[in-house]
Protein backbone atom coordinates (compact mmCIF):
# COMPACT_ATOMS: atom_id res chain seq x y z
CA UNK A 1 0.00 0.00 0.00
CA UNK A 2 1.02 3.61 -0.47
CA UNK A 3 2.18 5.54 2.63
CA UNK A 4 4.00 8.78 3.38
CA UNK A 5 6.99 7.64 5.37
CA UNK A 6 9.75 9.15 7.45
CA UNK A 7 13.01 7.57 6.30
CA UNK A 8 15.54 9.67 8.19
CA UNK A 9 15.31 12.07 11.11
CA UNK A 10 16.96 15.45 10.56
CA UNK A 11 16.63 18.76 12.39
CA UNK A 12 16.10 20.81 9.22
CA UNK A 13 15.88 18.37 6.30
CA UNK A 14 14.31 15.06 7.34
CA UNK A 15 13.84 12.49 4.59
CA UNK A 16 10.11 12.04 3.94
CA UNK A 17 8.99 10.03 0.92
CA UNK A 18 6.05 8.11 -0.45
CA UNK A 19 6.77 4.39 -0.15
CA UNK A 20 5.09 1.16 -1.06
CA UNK A 21 4.85 -0.57 2.33
CA UNK A 22 3.19 -3.81 3.43
CA UNK A 23 -0.43 -3.49 4.53
CA UNK A 24 -0.27 -3.51 8.36
CA UNK A 25 -1.38 -6.48 10.40
CA UNK A 26 -3.44 -6.15 13.57
CA UNK A 27 -3.22 -7.42 17.14
CA UNK A 28 -6.30 -8.81 18.96
CA UNK A 29 -7.23 -5.39 20.40
CA UNK A 30 -6.73 -3.50 17.12
CA UNK A 31 -8.61 -2.75 13.89
CA UNK A 32 -7.47 -2.30 10.32
CA UNK A 33 -8.88 0.89 8.87
CA UNK A 34 -9.13 1.98 5.26
CA UNK A 35 -8.15 5.62 5.65
CA UNK A 36 -10.43 8.07 3.84
CA UNK A 37 -8.89 11.24 5.27
CA UNK A 38 -5.98 12.16 7.55
CA UNK A 39 -6.00 15.37 9.59
CA UNK A 40 -2.63 17.05 10.10
CA UNK A 41 -1.21 18.50 13.29
CA UNK A 42 2.03 20.38 14.05
CA UNK A 43 3.42 17.24 15.72
CA UNK A 44 3.46 15.56 12.28
CA UNK A 45 6.12 18.10 11.27
CA UNK A 46 7.95 17.89 14.61
CA UNK A 47 8.36 14.10 14.72
CA UNK A 48 10.61 14.03 11.59
CA UNK A 49 12.97 16.60 13.15
CA UNK A 50 13.69 14.19 16.00
CA UNK A 51 12.22 16.53 18.65
CA UNK A 52 10.12 13.75 20.14
CA UNK A 53 12.72 10.96 19.91
CA UNK A 54 13.11 10.63 23.70
CA UNK A 55 9.33 10.35 24.13
CA UNK A 56 7.83 8.71 21.03
CA UNK A 57 9.56 5.69 19.54
CA UNK A 58 9.24 4.98 15.82
CA UNK A 59 10.89 2.27 13.83
CA UNK A 60 12.04 3.83 10.54
CA UNK A 61 10.76 3.94 7.91
CA UNK A 62 7.67 5.06 9.83
CA UNK A 63 4.32 6.08 8.36
CA UNK A 64 3.58 9.68 9.29
CA UNK A 65 0.25 11.20 10.34
CA UNK A 66 -1.74 11.34 13.56
CA UNK A 67 -5.44 11.70 12.91
CA UNK A 68 -7.75 9.79 10.62
CA UNK A 69 -11.27 8.97 9.61
CA UNK A 70 -12.07 5.82 7.67
CA UNK A 71 -13.85 2.49 7.46
CA UNK A 72 -13.13 -0.58 9.58
CA UNK A 73 -12.07 -3.43 7.28
CA UNK A 74 -10.90 -5.97 9.86
CA UNK A 75 -11.22 -6.32 13.64
CA UNK A 76 -9.01 -8.21 16.10
CA UNK A 77 -10.49 -11.05 18.16
CA UNK A 78 -10.81 -8.89 21.31
CA UNK A 79 -12.56 -5.94 19.64
CA UNK A 80 -16.14 -5.71 20.88
CA UNK A 81 -17.47 -2.26 20.00
CA UNK A 82 -16.73 -2.07 16.27
CA UNK A 83 -17.32 -4.26 13.21
CA UNK A 84 -16.18 -4.22 9.60
CA UNK A 85 -18.00 -1.47 7.70
CA UNK A 86 -18.18 0.96 10.65
CA UNK A 87 -17.01 4.50 9.95
CA UNK A 88 -14.66 5.64 12.73
CA UNK A 89 -12.30 8.48 13.61
CA UNK A 90 -9.23 8.40 15.85
CA UNK A 91 -5.91 9.93 16.86
CA UNK A 92 -3.03 7.47 16.69
CA UNK A 93 0.01 9.75 16.97
CA UNK A 94 1.18 8.07 20.15
CA UNK A 95 1.14 4.55 18.80
CA UNK A 96 4.07 4.44 16.38
CA UNK A 97 1.90 3.85 13.33
CA UNK A 98 0.65 6.55 11.00
CA UNK A 99 -2.50 7.77 9.28
CA UNK A 100 -1.01 9.08 6.00
CA UNK A 101 -1.50 5.74 4.29
CA UNK A 102 -4.16 3.76 2.49
CA UNK A 103 -4.61 1.58 5.59
CA UNK A 104 -3.83 2.18 9.26
CA UNK A 105 -3.99 0.28 12.51
CA UNK A 106 -6.20 1.73 15.25
CA UNK A 107 -6.57 0.18 18.72
CA UNK A 108 -10.17 -0.10 19.84
CA UNK A 109 -9.23 2.08 22.83
CA UNK A 110 -8.43 5.02 20.51
CA UNK A 111 -11.44 4.93 18.18
CA UNK A 112 -14.96 6.33 18.19
CA UNK A 113 -17.74 6.13 15.63
CA UNK A 114 -17.50 8.97 13.12
CA UNK A 115 -20.07 11.70 13.82
CA UNK A 116 -22.94 10.90 11.45
CA UNK A 117 -23.29 14.48 10.22
CA UNK A 118 -19.63 14.91 9.25
CA UNK A 119 -17.92 13.67 6.11
CA UNK A 120 -14.57 11.88 6.41
CA UNK A 121 -12.52 15.03 5.81
CA UNK A 122 -14.40 16.94 8.52
CA UNK A 123 -14.17 14.02 10.95
CA UNK A 124 -10.42 13.57 10.35
CA UNK A 125 -9.86 17.21 11.31
CA UNK A 126 -11.04 16.66 14.87
CA UNK A 127 -9.38 13.91 16.97
CA UNK A 128 -6.15 15.47 18.23
CA UNK A 129 -7.42 19.03 18.66
CA UNK A 130 -10.66 17.77 20.17
CA UNK A 131 -8.95 15.48 22.67
CA UNK A 132 -6.33 18.08 23.57
CA UNK A 133 -8.91 20.79 24.22
CA UNK A 134 -11.07 18.33 26.18
CA UNK A 135 -8.19 17.10 28.35
CA UNK A 136 -6.93 20.66 28.95
CA UNK A 137 -10.19 22.51 29.57
CA UNK A 138 -12.41 19.82 31.08
CA UNK A 139 -10.00 17.44 32.80
CA UNK A 140 -7.13 19.68 33.89
CA UNK A 141 -8.68 23.14 34.21
CA UNK A 142 -12.09 21.80 35.25
CA UNK A 143 -13.48 24.87 33.52
CA UNK A 144 -16.88 25.91 34.85
CA UNK A 145 -19.65 28.21 33.72
CA UNK A 146 -18.84 31.81 34.54
CA UNK A 147 -15.06 31.32 34.59
CA UNK A 148 -12.71 33.19 32.28
CA UNK A 149 -10.25 31.38 30.02
CA UNK A 150 -7.56 32.77 27.73
CA UNK A 151 -6.99 30.70 24.59
CA UNK A 152 -4.23 32.30 22.50
CA UNK A 153 -4.08 31.66 18.73
CA UNK A 154 -7.84 31.31 18.34
CA UNK A 155 -7.56 30.81 14.58
CA UNK A 156 -5.38 27.67 14.78
CA UNK A 157 -6.41 24.03 14.89
CA UNK A 158 -6.48 23.95 18.70
CA UNK A 159 -7.91 27.44 19.07
CA UNK A 160 -10.87 26.95 16.74
CA UNK A 161 -11.95 23.83 18.65
CA UNK A 162 -11.04 25.03 22.17
CA UNK A 163 -12.97 28.31 21.87
CA UNK A 164 -16.12 26.40 20.94
CA UNK A 165 -15.63 23.86 23.75
CA UNK A 166 -14.98 26.58 26.34
CA UNK A 167 -18.16 28.41 25.26
CA UNK A 168 -20.08 25.13 25.54
CA UNK A 169 -18.76 24.80 29.10
CA UNK A 170 -20.15 28.26 29.84
CA UNK A 171 -16.84 30.10 30.12
CA UNK A 172 -15.98 33.59 28.94
CA UNK A 173 -13.24 33.33 26.33
CA UNK A 174 -10.47 35.70 25.36
CA UNK A 175 -8.21 34.95 22.42
CA UNK A 176 -5.45 36.47 20.33
CA UNK A 177 -5.49 36.54 16.57
CA UNK A 178 -4.32 38.67 13.68
CA UNK A 179 -6.58 41.23 12.02
CA UNK A 180 -7.73 39.04 9.14
CA UNK A 181 -8.95 36.30 11.52
CA UNK A 182 -10.93 38.51 13.93
CA UNK A 183 -14.28 37.65 12.33
CA UNK A 184 -13.47 33.92 12.35
CA UNK A 185 -12.77 33.80 16.09
CA UNK A 186 -15.78 36.02 16.80
CA UNK A 187 -17.98 33.59 14.87
CA UNK A 188 -16.66 30.74 17.06
CA UNK A 189 -17.82 32.58 20.18
CA UNK A 190 -14.73 34.44 21.46
CA UNK A 191 -15.87 37.22 23.81
CA UNK A 192 -12.67 39.27 23.94
CA UNK A 193 -10.43 39.40 20.91
CA UNK A 194 -6.93 40.83 21.06
CA UNK A 195 -5.23 41.53 17.73
CA UNK A 196 -1.76 40.28 18.56
CA UNK A 197 -0.18 42.34 15.78
CA UNK A 198 -1.43 45.58 17.38
CA UNK A 199 -2.05 44.95 21.07
CA UNK A 200 -0.35 43.21 23.99
CA UNK A 201 -2.82 40.74 25.56
CA UNK A 202 -1.33 41.24 29.03
CA UNK A 203 -2.37 44.90 28.90
CA UNK A 204 -5.95 44.03 27.90
CA UNK A 205 -6.88 41.00 30.06
CA UNK A 206 -7.06 40.44 33.81
CA UNK A 207 -8.49 38.18 36.48
CA UNK A 208 -8.53 34.99 34.38
CA UNK A 209 -9.10 31.48 35.75
CA UNK A 210 -7.16 29.52 33.13
CA UNK A 211 -4.77 29.85 30.22
CA UNK A 212 -4.32 27.30 27.47
CA UNK A 213 -0.70 27.58 26.32
CA UNK A 214 -0.78 27.26 22.53
CA UNK A 215 1.97 29.55 21.30
CA UNK A 216 5.71 29.44 21.81
CA UNK A 217 7.82 32.37 22.99
CA UNK A 218 7.02 34.36 26.10
CA UNK A 219 3.20 34.07 25.99
CA UNK A 220 3.07 31.58 28.86
CA UNK A 221 5.26 33.64 31.18
CA UNK A 222 3.39 36.83 30.33
CA UNK A 223 0.05 35.13 30.90
CA UNK A 224 0.84 34.78 34.62
CA UNK A 225 0.08 38.51 34.84
CA UNK A 226 -3.51 38.06 33.69
CA UNK A 227 -4.33 35.20 36.08
CA UNK A 228 -5.83 35.29 39.52
CA UNK A 229 -4.53 33.22 42.46
CA UNK A 230 -5.77 29.63 42.34
CA UNK A 231 -5.88 29.67 38.53
CA UNK A 232 -4.22 27.29 36.08
CA UNK A 233 -1.86 27.41 33.11
CA UNK A 234 -2.10 24.31 30.96
CA UNK A 235 0.63 24.43 28.37
CA UNK A 236 0.64 22.42 25.16
CA UNK A 237 3.97 23.79 24.00
CA UNK A 238 6.21 23.42 27.04
CA UNK A 239 8.25 23.80 29.02
CA UNK A 240 7.90 20.09 29.78
CA UNK A 241 7.79 19.22 33.47
CA UNK A 242 8.74 16.37 35.79
CA UNK A 243 5.10 15.32 36.26
CA UNK A 244 4.86 14.69 32.52
CA UNK A 245 8.02 12.53 32.63
CA UNK A 246 6.59 10.52 35.53
CA UNK A 247 3.19 10.10 33.84
CA UNK A 248 4.89 8.68 30.75
CA UNK A 249 7.21 6.54 32.88
CA UNK A 250 10.29 8.18 31.33
CA UNK A 251 13.64 7.60 33.01
CA UNK A 252 14.84 9.61 36.02
CA UNK A 253 17.32 11.62 33.98
CA UNK A 254 14.56 12.91 31.69
CA UNK A 255 12.37 13.66 34.72
CA UNK A 256 15.27 15.66 36.16
CA UNK A 257 15.91 17.52 32.87
CA UNK A 258 12.22 18.33 32.39
CA UNK A 259 12.08 19.48 36.01
CA UNK A 260 14.92 21.89 35.28
CA UNK A 261 13.23 23.09 32.09
CA UNK A 262 10.10 24.06 34.01
CA UNK A 263 11.90 25.50 37.05
CA UNK A 264 11.46 29.14 36.03
CA UNK A 265 7.80 28.96 34.99
CA UNK A 266 6.99 26.95 38.14
CA UNK A 267 8.72 29.52 40.34
CA UNK A 268 6.97 32.47 38.65
CA UNK A 269 3.59 30.69 38.76
CA UNK A 270 3.89 29.72 42.43
CA UNK A 271 4.69 33.32 43.36
CA UNK A 272 1.27 34.28 41.97
CA UNK A 273 -0.51 31.20 43.36
CA UNK A 274 -0.97 29.79 39.85
CA UNK A 275 -0.66 26.11 38.96
CA UNK A 276 1.49 25.37 35.88
CA UNK A 277 1.41 22.05 34.05
CA UNK A 278 2.38 20.67 30.66
CA UNK A 279 -0.19 18.53 28.89
CA UNK A 280 0.60 15.86 26.32
CA UNK A 281 -2.62 14.62 24.75
CA UNK A 282 -3.50 10.92 24.91
CA UNK A 283 -5.84 8.90 22.72
CA UNK A 284 -9.15 8.25 24.49
CA UNK A 285 -12.06 6.50 22.88
CA UNK A 286 -14.70 7.55 25.41
CA UNK A 287 -13.73 11.22 25.30
CA UNK A 288 -13.81 11.08 21.50
CA UNK A 289 -17.33 9.66 21.70
CA UNK A 290 -18.36 12.59 23.93
CA UNK A 291 -16.78 14.98 21.43
CA UNK A 292 -18.69 13.23 18.66
CA UNK A 293 -21.98 14.05 20.41
CA UNK A 294 -21.06 17.75 20.50
CA UNK A 295 -20.26 17.62 16.78
CA UNK A 296 -23.52 15.83 15.96
CA UNK A 297 -25.45 18.45 17.94
CA UNK A 298 -23.50 21.13 16.00
CA UNK A 299 -22.46 22.61 19.35
CA UNK A 300 -18.96 22.43 17.88
CA UNK A 301 -18.30 22.70 14.15
CA UNK A 302 -15.11 21.71 12.38
CA UNK A 303 -13.13 24.58 10.89
CA UNK A 304 -11.18 23.47 7.84
CA UNK A 305 -8.70 25.66 6.06
CA UNK A 306 -7.40 23.48 3.22
CA UNK A 307 -7.84 19.96 1.87
CA UNK A 308 -4.98 18.38 -0.11
CA UNK A 309 -5.10 15.21 -2.24
CA UNK A 310 -2.95 12.31 -0.97
CA UNK A 311 -0.28 12.82 -3.62
CA UNK A 312 0.24 16.35 -2.24
CA UNK A 313 0.58 15.24 1.40
CA UNK A 314 4.11 16.65 1.62
CA UNK A 315 2.84 20.03 0.42
CA UNK A 316 0.08 19.79 3.04
CA UNK A 317 2.70 19.29 5.78
CA UNK A 318 4.71 22.23 4.39
CA UNK A 319 1.60 24.43 4.34
CA UNK A 320 0.83 23.58 7.98
CA UNK A 321 4.46 24.26 8.92
CA UNK A 322 4.08 27.88 7.75
CA UNK A 323 2.04 28.32 10.94
CA UNK A 324 -0.87 30.30 9.51
CA UNK A 325 -3.57 27.69 9.03
CA UNK A 326 -7.08 28.95 9.80
CA UNK A 327 -8.43 25.85 11.46
CA UNK A 328 -7.34 22.49 10.14
CA UNK A 329 -5.40 21.06 7.21
CA UNK A 330 -6.62 17.67 5.98
CA UNK A 331 -5.32 15.17 3.42
CA UNK A 332 -7.99 13.31 1.46
CA UNK A 333 -6.85 9.76 0.81
CA UNK A 334 -9.90 7.90 -0.53
CA UNK A 335 -13.21 9.02 -2.07
N1 LIG B 1 0.95 19.01 23.95
C1 LIG B 1 0.05 18.47 23.15
O1 LIG B 1 -0.50 17.39 23.42
C2 LIG B 1 -0.37 19.20 21.91
C3 LIG B 1 -1.47 18.76 21.15
C4 LIG B 1 -1.84 19.49 20.03
C5 LIG B 1 -1.13 20.63 19.68
N2 LIG B 1 -0.06 21.02 20.42
C6 LIG B 1 0.71 22.23 20.09
O2 LIG B 1 -0.17 23.34 20.21
C7 LIG B 1 0.27 24.36 19.31
C8 LIG B 1 -0.95 24.85 18.51
O3 LIG B 1 -1.41 23.79 17.68
P1 LIG B 1 -2.38 24.10 16.47
O4 LIG B 1 -2.82 22.80 15.92
O5 LIG B 1 -3.41 25.08 16.89
O6 LIG B 1 -1.37 24.83 15.47
P2 LIG B 1 -1.71 25.58 14.10
O7 LIG B 1 -3.07 25.24 13.66
O8 LIG B 1 -0.57 25.33 13.17
O9 LIG B 1 -1.65 27.13 14.53
C9 LIG B 1 -1.65 28.07 13.51
C10 LIG B 1 -2.43 29.30 13.95
O10 LIG B 1 -1.75 29.95 15.03
C11 LIG B 1 -1.90 31.36 14.88
N3 LIG B 1 -0.77 32.01 15.55
C12 LIG B 1 0.55 31.77 15.37
N4 LIG B 1 1.28 32.55 16.20
C13 LIG B 1 0.40 33.28 16.92
C14 LIG B 1 0.53 34.26 17.95
N5 LIG B 1 1.73 34.63 18.41
N6 LIG B 1 -0.58 34.78 18.49
C15 LIG B 1 -1.81 34.41 18.05
N7 LIG B 1 -2.00 33.50 17.06
C16 LIG B 1 -0.90 32.93 16.51
C17 LIG B 1 -1.90 31.56 13.39
O11 LIG B 1 -2.60 32.76 13.09
P3 LIG B 1 -1.90 33.92 12.21
O12 LIG B 1 -1.80 33.41 10.82
O13 LIG B 1 -2.85 35.03 12.36
O14 LIG B 1 -0.58 34.17 12.84
C18 LIG B 1 -2.60 30.31 12.86
O15 LIG B 1 -3.98 30.53 12.65
C19 LIG B 1 1.35 23.74 18.44
O16 LIG B 1 2.61 24.17 18.94
C20 LIG B 1 1.20 22.25 18.66
O17 LIG B 1 2.40 21.53 18.51
C21 LIG B 1 0.34 20.31 21.51
Automatic annotation (TrEMBL):
Which protein family is named in the record? Belongs to the zinc-containing alcohol dehydrogenase family. Quinone oxidoreductase subfamily.
The Enoyl reductase (ER) domain covers which part of the protein?
11-331
Superkingdom of the source?
Bacteria
One GO term in the molecular function aspect is: oxidoreductase activity
SUPFAM superfamilies assigned: GroES-like, NAD(P)-binding Rossmann-fold domains
| PANTHER family for this protein | ALCOHOL DEHYDROGENASE RELATED, RETICULON-4-INTERACTING PROTEIN 1, MITOCHONDRIAL
This protein's record includes keyword Oxidoreductase: yes
Q: What is this protein called?
A: NADP-dependent oxidoreductase
Transit peptide among the record's keywords? yes
Stored InterPro entries = ADH-like_N (IPR013154), ER (IPR020843), GroES-like_sf (IPR011032), NAD(P)-bd_dom_sf (IPR036291), YIM1/Zinc_Alcohol_DH_Fams (IPR050700)
Which Pfam family, just one, is annotated for this protein? ADH_zinc_N_2
Q: Which UniProt keywords apply?
A: Oxidoreductase, Transit peptide
Amino acid sequence: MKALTLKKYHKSAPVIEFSDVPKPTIKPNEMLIQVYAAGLNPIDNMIPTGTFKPILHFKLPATLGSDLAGIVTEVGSQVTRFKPGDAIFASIFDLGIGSLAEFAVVPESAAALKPANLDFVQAASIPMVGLTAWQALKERANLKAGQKVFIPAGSGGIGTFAIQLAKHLGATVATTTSTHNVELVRSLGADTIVDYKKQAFEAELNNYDAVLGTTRGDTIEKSINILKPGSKIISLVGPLDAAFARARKLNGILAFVFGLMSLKINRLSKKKGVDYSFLFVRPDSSQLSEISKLLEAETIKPVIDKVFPFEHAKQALAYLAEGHAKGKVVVKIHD
